[in-house]
Records
---
Amino acid sequence: MNPLARKVFTRVGTGLITVIFAATIVFFLARVTGDPTHQILGENASQEAIDQLRNQLGLDQSIFVQYAEFLSKLAVGDLGTSLRYGIPNIELILPRLGNSFLLTAVAVAGGSAIGYILALLGATKRGSLWDKLSTSIAGIAQSIPPFWLGLVLVYFFALRLEWLPSGGVGDWTHVILPAVAIGMIPLAYVTRVGRTSIVSVLAEDYVLAARSRGFSERQVLLKHVLRASAIPVVTVIGLLTGAILSSTVTVEVVFSWPGIGSLANQAIQGRDFTLLQAMAIVTAVVFVLINFIVDLLYEVLDPRIRTR
Amino acid sequence: MTIQTDFRPDDEPQVAEVPPVDTRRKLLLRKGSGILGAAFFGIAVLLCLIAPWLPIADPNLNDLNEALRPPFWLSGGDMSHPLGTDQLGRDMMSRLLFGGRLTLVMVLAAVLLAAVVGLLVGIVAGYRGGVIDTILSRLTDAQLALPFILLALTIVLAVGSTVQTMIMVLALGSWANFARIVRGEAIGLRKRTFVVALESAHIGFFGIVLRHIFPNLLPLLLVVAVLQFGVMTLSEAGLSFLAMGVHPPQLTWGTMLAGGKDYLDSAWWIVVLPGLCIVLATLSLNMIADAARDKFDPTIGRGANK
Amino acid sequence: MSSNNLLSIQGLCATARDVNGGVIQILRDVNLELEEGDRLGIIGQSGSGKTTLIRAIVGLEHPTIKIESGTIKFRGETMYSDSCDRRAELRGSTLGAIFQSAIRSIYPFRRIGSQLREIVKFHHPELDKAQSLNRIEQLLRGMSLKDTDRILRSYPHQVSGGQLQRVAIALAMLADPDVLMADECTSALDKGTEADVVRLLDRFTNDGRSLLFVTHDLRLAGRVCDRMLVLLRGEVQDSGAAAEILAGACTEYTRSLLEAMPPWKPADGSWPADSVVELADRTRS
């Protein structure tokens, strides 16, 4: 088997294992930690209702049987049916995935870009006011709950100033505030990690050599430093996927954005735990895919990894 | 999967590379902000702790006549409710202090729990290695593949939300961070203290762990713990905001946010004030962690700790 | 002061601060004269300030180092003084640099061919693609680099050490500099490759180009250079014809260098140093 095929194969294999593990965790967590029927039906439910629900959910079977059923359904891509809406979970999730993707893509792109600029400022003007500013902004951005920032932004820009809409979808103006709220996370980490990375690249011999060959500082930054400092930044963005996905749950609620985050919220409020379970699996898959992409990016960015 | 690699983004270059005077100045600044952070957080904790004995209103006292009063510096507000009241007329300042109490206590318990679990898993995985390591690492990875909130919500849905479950849920979202870092350190330490381990073979695994490995890990653990404290405060806020937090009459900063979101237009302080507390608390913790990290070990992954 | 002088440095003083805030003199009142076609060796041990000296000529001294005073003139024009700093203009087209480690001084993320073409495009924009490629290949072949096609297509890490050092020289040469500055460029090489590089430097300086050859190896400098400048702790100890200095017409310090066996250097490169900068340079290797 040629090396590239082998690499893809192992990645896919590992990814699948991770998804299955994750699904298993969710599966057991929901069942083993307590009886979900009480949560769904409430405190005063009749025994009949409880039994019926348990039967419906398959909870009256042994846990191993349940797990086997779960896995076999998973293998064919059946993520179960929503308790609340009665339609296959996957039909609920897929359309919304696109919306969330749009929002997070804008947030990550914007946050990373600004973060990188701040990192550049901090690294090239070390010790100066810019540096302190960039580090402070990163520190504050790390400490703000994204949904709270969303609320504050809504208050100022939508309610008081009426510049931007306070929620829902529509034109590009609707994306701005929620994207800013979510974008704080990548901004904070890209600034920090980027600054450190750029500083270490600036100290490299090839930067000195490039300068000695006559390139201006700006050319050196654009041609050499940018790409050389990218890898740790890409890594950290990959690591942030979980945090970013988490934040979509609350931020989408604040802005009534029809993505998987608000769907998750609906699932919770409606005690629709099959939907929740399905979402957890989809999320794990997304996670694996993103890491896949990050790995690919490594290969593109650093030829030393590529041609070994 | 690559996410499990012990990747530590290169932190500050070796000291000799950095302009020496700047290094001193920057360290001082870092230390200064660390002290500032510690002072601020310390005062906040203190105030929250002594809240029951302070001459402030009952945080759960409804008084609809006084509902939605603004803080004292705005028109309509006065010093009887210095930070205003919420939609049920409850005093904000008092709620902030009592809310802080529960928030901080819950998060502290969660951090301790996560640290202990993460420590154990990390040491066993890192020190023992082999199959155990592989299994534990896969487990850690798989958990990291699930965004915390989904996991947390699933559990809360199944179990309900009491203070105890909240603590466990928060810890669940965090132990993997400890485990991953501890494992990395343990692997490194295992190589170094292996000779000592051979010599003191009669002391056995636990002796080695207690005497050699743990003390080396302590500073690192503390830094991660402080950082995770901040992370968990934010997580708790998120969970509570989605009405998955503790139930009244217990209150945390997060649950205050959930209640106030509908009154954003008319009474912004209900949302802004608890949020500010969260931000300031987390910020001061991060400042402490930064200063501590600079002091102990500048190579701890800065930014890979989520 | 002969008007033939290509490069003229007068009274250069540079300082740095150590970790405690105290001031270290990196260069003390250094004078240097370089004529056309000259081959000047700058000799010193670690911490002597030799690297700082040549980096200071093009304004690339370590950011911690401060030039206190001095003038630098090129072809009679003032490039650096109290009132002006045009040293950046000298980089590349006037003074080309070769460093100690080729693998570290070449950008690892781009193919070698692409980097070479970039230099040609930058310094000779009038050449078209075919002409620049021609020039590159001629140069590489002239350096006895075989398999130029493969090398041009490769990334730096795919090429052997000796070949890479030649590429590094090519990167400097393509800008057509009047002066080549070689900073310990053979220290990391085996004797065979060192001889090759020395031969190359020889050839490049035969057609009127000048050479500043920085090294700690007095004998090597003797083979390569016509004139020498010996530095100790930033101060010039000896300056003059290589042959004379090597014959013994020199200060005590230089004589001790001549007489001593090559000083023992610990394998990991650690060496007590006075200068913060040299320490930084070495801890990086």
---
Amino acid sequence: MGVTSLWFIDAWAVYDGVAFASRSAPEIRGTTRVVEAETTVFLSVPDLEPIPVGRITTGLRAARASYQDGYFDLDGTEIAFDTLEDIRQSVRRAYIACGLGPGGAATPPRIAPEPGAPTAGGSYFAGALDPADLEPDARPLDVVRRLLDEEPERLRRAVQAFGEGVVLDWEAALQHRLPATEDALGELYAVFADAGIWPGVEERERFVNDHHLLAGMHYLTERRYNPPLNPSPRRYSTQRLLTVAPCPSLPFPEPFSRLSDPLKLSLCDSEYLSSGGLAKGVPVLLAVMLVGVTIGGPSTFWHGVAQVFDHRMRSAIDWLERQLPRPVVPEVADQLLNGFARSWLQGPPPDLPGPASAPPSTGPSAGPFAPAPSPSTETPPEPDWLQQVIDDPWFTVRPEDPPPTRSAP
Amino acid sequence: MDHQPHPGVDSPRGASVRMADLFPSGFDQTYFCDAPWSERVKRWVADRIDVGFSGGNEKIVRRSLEDSETGLRVVVNITAVSLLVVFATNQYLNLYDRPRIGGKAPEPSEARERVDKTLKLGQTTYFGAVALGGTGVRYYGEYCMVLNLDQVADTTRLFDRDSFDILEEPLFDLILNEPSADPSMTSQRIDALRGVWGPDRVDMAVRRVLPELGHDTRLVTSGTISDAVLRDQEFIEVHLDGSFEPNAIEEVRESPDETAIEMSLRGRADRGIALTQTEQEWLVRREIVVELLAALRIPHRIVTLHGRGYQWA
């Protein structure tokens, strides 16, 4: 390998986490001598392990097949990487980033909350926080770790309050009931119960009854959901539930469309968790507790509920820290990745199908690129939009239904 | 260039005088010539007329490739989000006509421009591969769209290899690299590697498959034929003149490799092992695609590279 050799992205399917990359002398890029690259590899999610490709032309041709042609900065200069690991991280971060926001790729659309206006769930969460714990300038994970070590009860309470805020917001959005929506919310209740968000059955039943949460009462009280004794078959994976559950909105740090957004943003924006304190840390922690904790460790049969919950929080933080992005070199690539994530938070690119600002969604009943125009976030959803969601074949068509046409949904 | 006589070329079966001039002597003159593809197959068989199973194999290969129900198809590999976009927009498009992250190159890649110019490829050219079963070229997308036979025009152009191969030696020196490449020969050499879907697809594929077989000892089976038609990144390229709609898709195929990875991850998750965010995201997107294809009643099958799944599914 020559001392001047660097890594370049030959072709990149940004939304799908696959790319071709070559190591070569910079001066031959863009010319017909590009085929003299020293090596070419193929990277693909989920593991992004480099697979050697015999010739770079395989990668160059990929721009004819759903790949972006190379990777350039905004001035048109091709971005060179010192290491393949930086390219792997770039591919991974962009892949996660395009699942963000109201119209994330391959995720149902969800309303973007009004900036600065807390939702009911957000206000509920904010009311449970002790202002002394917020530490908005501190690294969120530092605050979370400190509380976990020193005052775990306060952290438990914050996580529980945020989880309760999620179901408060989702129940409030259930004015237009769809079976799939209720099922999804019911499953979220079950997932919360499994994760120990409520210390016990009495606490969770009291919560749903006190707030008159109809779906919660139905699933938790009437059905007597009891995870250890009566595990229910699940229709949605927990990861998928996170993409359709709302994220309680606070005036700070910023509003999110989905419960998965803070988690994904922390994994694709290298600066997101550099400050923000507890208000940022708790939403991420709750999401990770649902998808990032390996079963094992202490059980409630031998240990106290609080001890098990603390173990889950600790495991969640470990899972998150193992995957946190480190800044990619060169810096321009890191900034582009952060900007890419931020742009998806605002909505999908305008030339992608589906609304740039998505319609309100009350559950996983709408497709990845929903067909509906977006009403103003200040107006209630129009009946015709609701009908379109109901008619949407992405999630509502069942095998016994007549087949839809193969035209665009 | 030297003209080395070749039994097939100079045989009484009627070789073109010019054919040996197209490519140097080191090239197989029964292949790299300007004769029709059907003639190239005949010459190859004639050269091996005494080799035990060559005639029988030629018949079997041709029969397998010609069958309208189970024979050759155009396949287009596609990534998950691009596949979703096909159904959302009712059209197959290249999502990446402009960069999705970062800026644009100040000028088009010289390499790509020269390939496009040499092969007369335009903005409306869409690319596929010729296949008999299998899952296409995995690198270009984990989902392999198989186009209905009646959706591919007989005039669709074929190229006997990945068009970017002309950037690599030895074709680069013969076709693109001036002054070593004689410009007056460029188009003839390119034409010698071209074909047309209607009249040529079977002969091009037969000619591709026959040299791969063991004609001394046995007859071939269709799994071997499938593998020889499209193996790894070696394929006959299809240049579709324009895009296509979802109703042109006969089925979507996937490799067992992807399914094995998916099952492995789901197995780990079922045992309570936390997957990474990337792994979980990948699984969710696969769920969405599966649900979409089921909702639209588009056959979605897992097939093996060598065609057994294709045969017995």
